[in-house]
Amino acid sequence: MYRQSLINDPFSSLTADYQECADNLSYTFFSLIGSALGTLDLIIPLSIVLTLFLLAIYQNITGNQIPETYSREERESSLTAFATTLLLARDARRIEHTTNSFEAI
Question: What is the residue extent of each domain of the chain?
């Protein structure tokens, strides 16, 4: 009996009013471009990682390695020179900051 009353008098309308959407050409075009760019944002990094992985496997299987272009001594001397330059730049900023603070007094 309760079931029959729900069928006869439902809580809400059983039919809905739908609107037909007719997108214009520019909206459709930009929507397609956005979808394609989203797909590319996923495909490009994955293809780069896959390529690097395949190159590493190729190098391990064939024994073809990228030749080392710099010797250990050259790398250490360049790192020492770089570290010295960074420390000199840091000290120059400290001296500049100290002189600027004394000028304010």
Answer: 20-67, 68-105
Alpha carbon 53 to its chain's center: 19
Show the CA angle centred on residue 29, arms to residues 25 and 32, nearest 5°: 140
Contact assessment for residue 81 and residue 73, using Cβ atoms and an 8 Å cutoff: no
Q: What is the pLDDT of residues 1-33, one digit of tens each?
A: 666 776 677 666 666 666 666 678 888 888 888
pTM to 2 decimal places:
0.37
| 49 against 98, higher pLDDT | 49
- Sign of the dihedral defined by the CA atoms of residues 24, 29, 32, 37, in that order: negative
> How big is the CA angle at 63 (ends 57 and 64), to the nearest 5 degrees?
90
